[in-house]
Amino acid sequence: MKRSKMMELGVGLFMLAGVLGLVFLGLRVSGLTFTAPADTFRLEANFANIGSLKPRARVTMAGVTVGRVAAIELDTDWYDARVVLELDSELEGRLSRDTTAAILTAGLLGEQYIGLSVGGDPETLADGDTIRDTQSAVVLEELIQQFVSNMVSD
Amino acid sequence: MIERVTILGRRGCELLEALGRAGVFLFLSAVGIPSREGWYLWLRQMHFVGVLSLAIVLVSGLFIGMVLALQGYTLLVDFGAEQALGQMVALSLLRELAPVVAALLFAGRAGSALTAEIGLMKATEQLTSMEMIGVDPLRRVVAPRLWAGFVALPLLTIGFSVVGVYGGYLVGVEWLGVFEGSYWGNMQASVDFIGDVGNGMVKSLVFALVVTWIAVFQGYDLIPTSEGISRATTRTVVYSSLAVLGLDFVLTAVMFGGLN
Asked: Is residue B142 part of a domain?
């Protein structure tokens, strides 16, 4: 009977360790937080070219991550890309109406992300508004093409 | 020529029969409400296939995480991207290595033992004696082992991942000097709980079912001689390894194939 108690304890500890491991994987490895998903608000931005921007990419402001790309879809009215941004709710009502959004690249070959920079307009963007002033991703081929055609015209 | 085709046909029929037997066997032993004694039998098997497999699984996980970090670092540092080390270690562990390697180790450590144990019970007519006294060997012998394997392997896989990520941390951060914040930060930014941890767990559940099923069925279905037991034990390890690796490809294609 003594031995079976030890065994039960061992199995119990084993299962407990498994559950704790799963919690570790959730919190530490995949960075789950217990904040309610309602803590964000949405903005839209239309880009002529998003390059290789993907959903879940970072949205930064002065280099600080303030949100994520929620969705990317084709806007069939203008035939450009409509990007839905999910931003921290503490920024709601604080971004001026002339905020600009640019698609930037981390390092030379890194992932692409969106950088926001505020303007000076006293009116602010609310949930669901669209950022008008956007800057598309830099596509290397286009850059080289421009460079070559400039050289030729000189 | 016709004889060859006949042999092929016979093999095909035998294979189908074996699959059918294995299916009925799985259904009969896994479905049903366990008695109080059944819980206790399950507990004993959990101790044997789970707790006693911890050592080999955790040590392997630690070394695999360390090696991943070492190899990843030498590759990534050329591109100045060693900050992505945590992401690389965590994703390769969670998505592929932890479920697959834990299942392979489990097949070698616990699966072969299950086959040999049940096989010896059959060879010494213990299973027949149980039937004689009105105890169903499927419920008494096979079901606890099946369920114990099904529960234990996912837990072992979690342990493997955790220890592997920690091993990557030891080598990457403590030894090679990757910045600690970017190791965890990039990991957290790129690992999705449902998409990566969850899918890894689904893989692990599938492998657990397949490996334990093969192990107990091979034990139950073998020819009851010493040679039969040795063959069945070998077959358990070979079949479950092949099944795990093949299924892993299929599952990866389904889960991550559409990922761009």
From this structure: yes
Give B-chain residues touching A29 at CB under 8 angstroms: 90, 94, 161, 165, 187-188, 191, 197
Distance CA B138, CA B140 (A): 6
Q: Which amino acid is at A64?
A: V
d(CA A65, CA A113): 10
CA B226 to chain centre: 26
Task: Provide the number of CB pairs (under 8 Å) joining chain A to chain B.
Answer: 76
Three-state secondary structure call for residue A86: strand
ipTM reported for the complex, 2 dp = 0.75
Residues in a beta bridge with A45: A83, A131
CA gap B97, B234 in Å, rounded: 23
Measure the CA–CA gap between B60 and A19, rounded to whole angstroms. 20
Provide Rg for chain B, Cα atoms: 22
For residues B235, B238, B242, B248, the Cα torsion angle rounded to the nearest 10 degrees is 100
In eight-state DSSP terms, residue A25 is I
Please identify which residue in the block is written with the tokens 């001689």.
Answer: B225
Kind of pairing between the strands at A100-105 and A80-88: unpaired
**For the packed helices B199-221 and B112-123, what is the interaxial angle rounded to 10 degrees?**
20
- pLDDT tens by residue, B135-170: 888 888 899 999 999 999 999 999 999 999 999 999
The confidence score (pLDDT) of residue A119 equals: 84
Low-confidence ranges of chain B (pLDDT < 50): 260
In DSSP terms, A27 is beta-bridged to: none
Distance from the first to the final alpha carbon of chain B: 49
Instruction: Pick from A4, A5, A11, A72 the residue to mutate for testing the B interface (most B CBs within 10 Å).
Output: A11
The structural domain count of chain B equals: 1
CA dist., res. B119 & res. B123, Å (int): 6
Range of the domain at B125: 32-256
* Cα distance between residue B133 and residue A127, in whole Å: 73
Q: Distances from the Cα of A72 to the Cαs of A54, A57, B47, B184, B230, in angstroms? A: 8, 11, 50, 27, 58
Per-residue tokens: B152: 């234990």
Helices (H), B170-198: 180-190
Cα torsion through A121, A124, A128, A129, rounded to 10: -20
